[in-house]
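Final report, Chapter 2: Outcomes

The project's central promise was a pipeline that accepts a single protein chain and returns its three-dimensional structure in a standardized token representation, suitable for archiving and comparison. That pipeline is now operational. To close this chapter, we reproduce one record exactly as it appears in the project archive, with the input sequence first and the structure output second.
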Amino acid sequence: MITPKFRRVVLKLSGEALAGSAGYGIDPDVVISIALQIREIVELRVEVAIVVGGGNIWRGVAGSAKGMDRATADYMGMLATVINSLALQDALTKNGTDTRVQTAIEMREVAEPYIRRRAIRHLEKGRVVIFAGGTGNPYFSTDTTAALRAAEIEAEVILMAKMVDGVYDSDPMLNPAAKRFKTLSYIDLLNKGLGVMDATAASLCMDNRIPLMVFNLNQQGNIKRAVMGEVVGTQVGLKTGGEMVG
């Protein structure tokens, strides 16, 4: 049997990843495709926890910018992550993957409350655990949620699935000459303001020595390649400097 490099991972998905080409809402075909990729690594006996954003439905920061109370806007964003988590759970369950959703905001009718020891027990039993509702507090992003939960469950790596194939020195959508980093240190990530994750999340990962792999979700098989230790996208860890590719 092929041996994965990582045995317990946190997979961070943006809400936009679930929207597909529409850019908003949930595309069932995209969710099914993601669920199949997750099943691939579960079959390798990798313990998988997932954090999903809610940007395809609602962004708290955007609501706040238009005059809404920031805390209220952020709570709305947390509820959006629950909707996405339930959609992903449904797709995983239908492909035979045992899955639990745990929420930081209690709503027992639709999901379990987040309890660290219970989450770890689910993982040990081979169940996928989806962490919904952010941290349960306003002013914190789902990136920070991923970093916090990874530290709590002692995950070996955070797999950050994006719509681009790594971390660039500038926006590759706007600058065709943008260069992609192969490796980065968290200090570089913070100092260069590269925008992969917010500073709170990056600092939490750095303090707890949790490596980060940033790669393109749209390329089939990338989640499995990352788990196997193949070099995909950009690796962020405790390195002294970054190497760029043209």
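Archive annotation: The chain has nine helices and eleven strands.
This record, like all others produced under the grant, will remain available to the consortium after the project formally closes.
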